From TrEMBL:
One of its GO terms (cellular component) is peroxisomal membrane. PANTHER family: PEROXISOMAL BIOGENESIS FACTOR 11 (PTHR12652), PEROXISOMAL MEMBRANE PROTEIN 11B (PTHR12652:SF17). It is a multi-pass membrane protein. Keywords: Membrane, Peroxisome, Peroxisome biogenesis, Transmembrane, Transmembrane helix. This is Peroxisomal membrane protein 11B. Involved in peroxisomal proliferation. Promotes peroxisomal duplication, aggregation or elongation without fission. GO terms for molecular function: identical protein binding. Belongs to the peroxin-11 family. The chain crosses the membrane at residues 28-49. Pfam families: PEX11. It comes from Thlaspi arvense. Its main location: membrane. It is found in: Peroxisome membrane. Homooligomer. Interacts with ARC5 and FIS1B on peroxisomes.
Length: 133
């Protein structure tokens, strides 16, 4: 929410509605809030992947108790969820690199190749999450 709130002030200052001098400060606050969100979502996805891997392991070891079709469908569903969460993690890491380039410019994050690859990874992961088949 910090990101969305301050991003509005950033754009208002860039178009001249607010004082243009505050644009740099609003950009920093907005990118910092955005980065915090990306870190949070990466951690949450890692937790969910860990839980899904445990349930996958449990399902595979208890395969004798249930019909193979039902178990096979659940295993495919869990594997699909894991892949989607990995796509989310890759997109969030790429977006985090882009946001870090805005917060504190440095040679790695602001390099043309790094920003280009990050943008492509983010777009690719978003495309795959929207149209997986």
């Amino acid at each position: 929410m910090v990101y969305f709130f301050f991003d509005h002030f950033l754009w208002l200052s860039r178009i001249g509605t607010l004082d243009p001098k505050i644009a740099k400060r609003m950009s920093f606050i907005s990118a910092f809030g955005e980065s915090f969100g990306y870190v949070f979502f990466i951690v949450i996805d890692c937790i969910f992947i860990r839980q899904r891997l445990k349930s996958l392991k449990t399902l595979r070891y208890s395969i004798d108790d249930k019909p193979k079709e039902e178990t096979g469908e659940k295993i495919k569903e869990i594997q699909g969820d894991i892949v989607m969460r990995l796509m989310g993690i890759s997109a969030n890491i790429a977006d985090l690199i882009i946001a870090l380039a805005e917060i504190e410019p440095n040679p790695f994050c602001n390099h043309t190749v790094t920003l280009g690859i990050s943008g492509l990874v983010s777009a690719w992961a978003g495309w795959y999450r929207n149209w997986p088949s």
